[in-house]
Design brief:
Layout (H helix, E strand, L loop, with lengths): L3 E6 L3 H12 L4 E5 L5 H5 L2 H18 L15 H16 L4 H6 L2 E5 L2 E5 L2 E4 L2 E10 L3 E3 L7 H4 L4 H4 L8 E5 L3 H13 L2 E6 L10 H13 L3 E4 L3 E7 L2 E6 L2 E5 L1 E4 L3 E3 L6 H4 L3 E2 L2 E2 L12 E3 L10 H16 L13 E3 L4 E6 L2 H8 L4 E6 L4 H5 L6 E6 L5 E8 L2 H13 L4 H6 L9 H17 L1 H12 L2
Parallel strand pairs: 1-2, 1-6, 2-3, 6-18, 8-9, 8-14, 9-10
Antiparallel strand pairs: 4-5, 5-6, 7-15, 11-12, 12-13, 16-17, 19-20, 20-23, 21-22, 22-23
Bound molecules: flavin-adenine dinucleotide.
The site of flavin-adenine dinucleotide has 37 residues, from helix 1, strand 2, helix 2, helix 3 and helix 11.
Length: 470
């Protein structure tokens, strides 16, 4: 006899979307979690990083207040107090995800690590739980780098970062992906010297090249030092001094943050006993999010796809929908929108210019509006960004790339447009509020509209009409 219709393993972004929906649909559902509900996002990811970024912005604004005619002050930063604030925010968000709060939504939380006994049974502590279906949402963890000396030296990852009690004097960061870049700017603004190391030549390899160059300029102007395009030869440590040998340079610091990616959490689940196929890239799922066992689904970071809370959440919903309702929906997306929460933010939806040219050849246009031409960016002194729209001559939108204080909010207009097959002309014709950052998107669309009108038959007719009018 099955105890539950659905058991969700892992109460992070994916599991916390999935389990309450399953309960709403009338299923008997249990959510198994080895720590506390919340997952990476709440304890070591999105929430603490964004709270820290906000604190760093406050410090930055104190330091740069003179720009606005206000006397500037060098902030006194006690990292212990800043982290106490970060953990207070975590506590507030957790209140909505406690086992008691979840029970009110019809979800039974079982605390303990889950491992499969057979395809329909898991062990959780000293208890065995049987279910008709399972959803595995166990997330990912920091990857261990293979750089010589790094393991022996000891280092921190995002797991320890939000527990630091002392502001590093000089923070060395290996990896210039989202976590490395966000934390580099935050710690620089809090008062650390920061040096970043990256094998490739630019930061945020997943971003459009113009956007990554724009944010790199801002970070450099704030004093972040980049050592890019060089292999790290060795890392060593003597007392509290870490040494990174990068190309010909030898750089010393008093803290080492490694941010070189994350790997799926499959260990300990005994997936072999359930007959679930998995590899280094995580648990393999089909478009319905079914594993090699049709009654066992997986979602989020553990499937090795894009590692975002909103993606894990969407997949959690889709997995439940497919597991409990007739028919099916796809749990995969070609282009997942994202934002990196630097200041200004960097956001992307759809294809980069390079990808679009590979797919569509010559019929690719790029329309750019720089922040200096967006009045709100002028009033806010946010002048280093841009809105870059990649599209076809028909106005079909292929991608949008934004660097702006509000990029994370602005990108949704483009996500909606692409999902609903709206064109650049539709954005041009939609009234936007002045003075917002969002109106920059409309202004870009209007400028393309006018240019393409003038280039085509419309332009020739206008020229002829003007001639006739004398
Ligand atoms: C520093 C940092 C910043 C980030 N910032 C952002 C951001 O701004 N925006 C964004 O979209 N994403 C961000 N992310 C990524 C985001 O946190 C993850 O993509 C998201 O949490 C993945 O959700 P998930 O459900 O797959 O896994 P998780 O949320 O990690 O949940 C997995 C859960 O499973 C539990 N678990 C694991 N194994 C077992 C087991 N055997 N039994 C029981 N329980 C188990 C874990 O304890 C955990 O609670 C960030 C990540 C980091 C590290």
């Amino acid at each position: 006899v099955n105890d539950y219709d659905l058991v969700v393993i892992g109460a992070g972004s994916g599991g916390l979307s999935a389990a309450p929906l399953a309960a709403k649909l009338g299923a008997r559902v249990a959510l198994v979690e080895r720590y506390k509900p919340g997952g990476d996002c709440l304890y070591t990811g999105c929430v603490p990083s964004k709270a820290l970024i906000k604190a760093a912005k406050v410090a930055h604004e104190m330091r740069t207040a003179e720009t606005f005619g206000i006397e500037a002050h060098e902030p006194v930063v006690d990292l212990r107090r800043v982290m106490a604030h970060v953990h207070e925010v975590i506590g507030r968000v957790y209140e909505y995800e406690t086992p008691e709060a979840l029970a009110k939504k019809g979800v039974e939380v079982i605390l303990g690590g889950a491992s499969f006994v057979d395809p329909h049974t898991i062990d959780v502590g000293d208890r065995q739980v049987r279910a008709k279906r399972f959803l595995i949402a166990t997330g990912s963890r920091a990857a261990v780098p293979t750089i010589p000396g790094v393991r022996e030296s000891g280092y921190i990852t995002y797991d320890e970062l939000f527990h630091l009690a002392r502001l590093p004097e000089h923070l060395l960061i290996i990896g210039a992906g989202p976590i490395g870049v966000e934390m580099a700017q935050a710690f620089r603004r809090l008062g650390s010297r920061v040096t970043m190391f990256q094998r490739s030549r630019r930061l945020l390899g997943m971003a459009d090249a113009d956007c990554s160059a724009a944010i790199a300029r801002v970070m450099e102007s704030e004093g972040v030092v980049f050592h890019f395009g060089a292999e790290i030869g060795r890392v060593s440590r003597a007392g509290m001094t870490y040494t990174v040998e990068s190309g010909r340079d030898i750089i010393e610091g008093d803290q080492l943050l490694v941010a070189t990616g994350r790997v799926p959490n499959v260990e300990g689940l005994d997936l072999e006993k359930a007959g679930v196929v998995h590899g280094a890239g995580g648990i393999q799922v089909d478009s319905r999010l079914r594993t090699s066992q049709p009654h066992i689904y997986a979602c989020g970071d553990v499937t090795g796809g894009p590692q975002f809370t909103h993606y894990a959440g969407m997949q959690g919903y889709v997995a439940v929908r497919n597991a409990l309702l007739p028919g099916s929906s796809s749990g995969h997306m070609d282009h997942v929108p994202w934002t990196i929460f630097t200041d200004p933010e960097v956001a992307r939806a759809g294809m980069t210019e390079e990808e679009a040219r590979q797919r569509h050849g010559a019929d690719v246009r790029v329309t750019i509006r720089e922040n200096v031409h967006i009045d709100r960016a002028q009033t806010d002194e946010d002048l280093h960004g841009l809105v870059k729209i990649v599209h076809r001559s028909s106005g079909e939108i292929l991608g949008a790339h934004i660097v702006s204080a509000r990029a994370g909010e602005m990108i949704h207009e483009f996500v909606l447009a692409m999902e609903q097959k709206l064109k650049l002309g539709d954005i041009a014709e939609t009234m936007h509020v002045y003075p917002t950052y969002g109106i920059g998107a409309q202004q870009a669309a209007v400028s393309w509209r006018v240019d393409s009108l003038l280039e085509g038959l419309g332009g020739r007719l206008i020229a002829a009409a003007r001639k006739l009018a004398g």
